[in-house]
Amino acid sequence: MDEVWEKAVKTALDLDGQGDYAAVKTLTLDGAVKCYQGKLPSQNLLEKFKGLEHLSIANVGLSSLEIFPCITTLQKLNLSDNRIVRGLEFLVKAGLDSLRDLDLSNNRIQAVEDLAPLAELKLESLDLYECPVTKIKDYRSRVFGLIKSLQYLDKMDVNGVEVLESDEDEEDDDEEEEDEEEDVGCGEVDGEGQLGKKMNNGGVADEEDESDADEGVEEDGESADEDGEDENENDEDDEEEDEDEDQNGEVPVQPSSPSHSKRKRSQVDDNGDDVDNDSIVDAASL
């Protein structure tokens, strides 16, 4: 059975047997082995991890915690989804002085008294979700009264307020978000600069070029207006010259008088057969 556990450990860590076990901080063996006898692997296997801080052995069929390895650096232990009923005193005997977070959810613990050994540890968080003991009257108040160091039970504080993450984690998340926002801002500025360069290289005018072009158009427009004003002044000079010529004695051509038109009518009538009296009178007057 130990060989199966050894293989599971190597697979979890991707080790070839020559790895530095003492440097490992987290070891997860969830569902890696099915313990039909409900026992842990030999102490020697897990005690190689001298610096281990987080150990998870969930859903492997454990029913006994006897010979639990002595890992004094262990801070978080996950034993959820197993068949543990009692025997929590073996965790105390293992000397888990650094243990702060213990997950025993979905096990078979039935009585509050079975939790008594945990009072000797310095637990801050204990999860018993889906264990039969949670159905006992005044379960929460009794557990908090039993384990004085406990701050969270089933991910809720003594007032029943759910706590998903610690304040330190929240602060770290806020700092990371601020850093990301700063990075995004810097990226936008750099991006605009690069875009302007690309547009210039590609023959497309940027904002400065467009402003220069607009200034050139305005200057051309002003020049055109000045030329137009010069032309108007020249036209006015021409008109003044014409007026001067008229005043010097040149008389403009007058339209034909009525007598002139009657003369033409009389000449036409001389060639015709019928001549009226008015035409004769007009002709005689001429």
TrEMBL record:
Keywords: Leucine-rich repeat, Repeat. Residues 164-191, 205-248, 270-279 have a biased composition (Acidic residues). Gene3D superfamilies: Ribonuclease Inhibitor (3.80.10.10). PROSITE patterns: LRR. One of its GO terms (molecular function) is histone binding. One of its GO terms (cellular component) is nucleus. InterPro entries: AN32, Leu-rich_rpt, LRR_dom_sf. Residues 164-286 are annotated as: Disordered. Belongs to the ANP32 family. This is U2A'/phosphoprotein 32 family A C-terminal domain-containing protein.
